[in-house]
Amino acid sequence: MSSTQEARGRNGSRTAYEKILDLHTVAKDADGSALVFIDRIMLHERMGPLALIGIIESGREILAPDRVFCTYDHIIDTYPGRGDKTTAPNGEEFIESLRAGVRTLGLRSFDIDDPRQGIVHVIAPEHGIALPGITMICPDSHTCTLGGIGAVAWGVGSTDCEHALATGVLRVTPKRIMRVTVGGRLSSWVTAKDLAIHLISKHSASGGHGAVVEFGGEAIDALEVEARMTLCNMVVEFGAFTGLVPSDGKTLDYVRGRPFAPQADMVKTVEAHWRSLASDPGAKFDQEIELNAADVAPTVTWGTSPEYAVPVDQATPDPADAGDEATAAGWARSMEYMGLTPGIPLTSIPIDGAFIGSCTNARISDLRRAAAVLKNRTVADGVLAICVPGSTQVRLAAEREGLDKIFTAAGFQWRESGCSLCVFAGGESFAHGDRVVSSTNRSFEGRQGPGTRTHLASPETVALSAVNGRISDVRALGPMKPEIAT
Description:
By secondary structure, this protein is of the alpha/beta class. It folds into three domains: 35-172, Aconitase, domain 3 (2-Layer Sandwich); 173-294, Aconitase, Domain 2 (3-Layer(aba) Sandwich), CATH 3.40.1060; 301-485, Aconitase, domain 3 (2-Layer Sandwich). It contains 17 helices and 19 strands. The protein has helices at 3-11, 16-24, 48-58, 91-105, 120-126, 158-167, 192-203, 218-222, 225-233, 249-255, 267-275, 325-338, 364-374, 392-400, 403-410, 459-468, 482-485; strands at 25-28, 34-37, 40-44, 68-71, 108-110, 135-138, 152-155, 169-172, 177-183, 212-216, 242-244, 287-292, 299-301, 309-311, 353-356, 384-387, 413-414, 435-438, 453-456. A five-stranded parallel sheet has the order 5-4-3-6-7, covered by helices on one side. The N and C termini lie far apart (45 Å). The relative contact order is 0.13.
């Protein structure tokens, strides 16, 4: 047992993560590992079928089918009027395989034409499947997104998913618990996405290795719940196990009345419980990071890792300034892939594509802010611009507000919901060598297609970059209007 863990035991104070895990612990091993009860499991058509096939072929049953939710998002097409046909190789087989498992095991499913369909991490909080204080898994690394609503949620492999489906529990090893405190308020046009990339660029893509990262401070308190989800979504790019923003009044307002959330007769009791799950004032963390919100600018990646990023008004760095040979080699390789050299101002870099979508930044608040930038503006010639809402409910809400008309009038393609061009799954992609500004979470080599060069940014930055035909600084638009900020 670590000295920090001993201190926690002596003073009785606990972090939010420890409180939630303790409530779900069925048994503990001598090494501190816990057998943890899993409240809800979500599956999608890319990885979900493997777990369901394992259950069926072994002759076992799912312990609690009512706690399992399935959707279709990773491989499906997002073109208007879509069906089962997909550009991904064997895509229809994946879709039908999940459907077969759903039928055999009697699971709840949000199929392609279901108005509840969408990206798994978008629909989970949207429908009240993800809730404060619950444990939740999905065979997808960005399940940590749901920490933004106060859940302890993490991605698993298909084998662990199968185990949890059959037994209702998973083994969780002891985790380092880190707190990231962000003081002050984010400046105009600076978003949770910028904050996430800023954190990773300052403390490296392995800075949160294996940790539970709890976010707090004035800047976090000021964020709306959907922005907190964006922040927690990116902790896996920080190397973390999961992220967490303990629930507060904003969280409770967001959850209240959603289809799978507690109903009216239980709300008072449940909300009092959720409020009790905040970290105690004397709780001990294994590591503390403090950031000043005033130091965070609109931030864009220049390379093939979220770690390779600078404020948008700066230039690409020089590997000679990296500080050590390994880092210098990584910078040099990344620059070669990205077709860049040191000292290039980011705002001078032309682009070929712009993508707004993904579980990171495709919620209604993201689309509203991007649409505000695009209103009465037009995408530059030669730029392929695409917007893919994160869920069917987001798409319908955006269309009721007329946001789709703003996007299409500006020259963006308006799509059905899904993961789409966030990840190249063997189907649709940007072209080899294309430079794309994207609201997604990963800029790895080939992430959006073989040879595609991806720059990560906020939806607002993506929108203005599409209009200007080059990476752009949204602060050039002047102070953000209040209606845009909300």
